[in-house]
Write a structure and sequence with these properties.
The chain is of the alpha+beta class. It has a single domain, classed as 3-Layer(aba) Sandwich (Glutaredoxin). It is built from three helices and four strands. A four-stranded mixed β-sheet has the order 2-1-3-4. The protein is globular and about 30 Å long.
Length: 77
């Protein structure tokens, strides 16, 4: 699984990255996690607010930090 967190480094972006990495480690989910901070790269995903979560090149969350339960559901779908 390829996971990207889109954000410029705001507190919510950092919180999402921390939560994603924690769950990946705890549940031993095979994935590659990347933090995308470049505004031009972020704009290529056609989102208007950060943070955003991209799984396998599909934007699944934008503009908020999802709960751990929601993240696990997204990782397993």
């Amino acid at each position: 699984m390829n996971i990207k967190i889109l954000g410029t480094g705001c507190p919510n972006c950092n919180a999402l990255e921390k939560r994603v990495r924690k769950l990946i480690d705890e549940h031993k989910i095979q994935s590659e996690v990347t933090m995308v901070k470049d505004i031009m790269d972020i704009m290529s995903y056609n989102i208007m607010s950060t943070p955003a979560l991209v799984i396998n090149e599909n934007v699944v969350v934008k503009g908020r930090v999802p709960s751990e339960k929601e993240l696990l559901k997204l990782f397993n779908s």
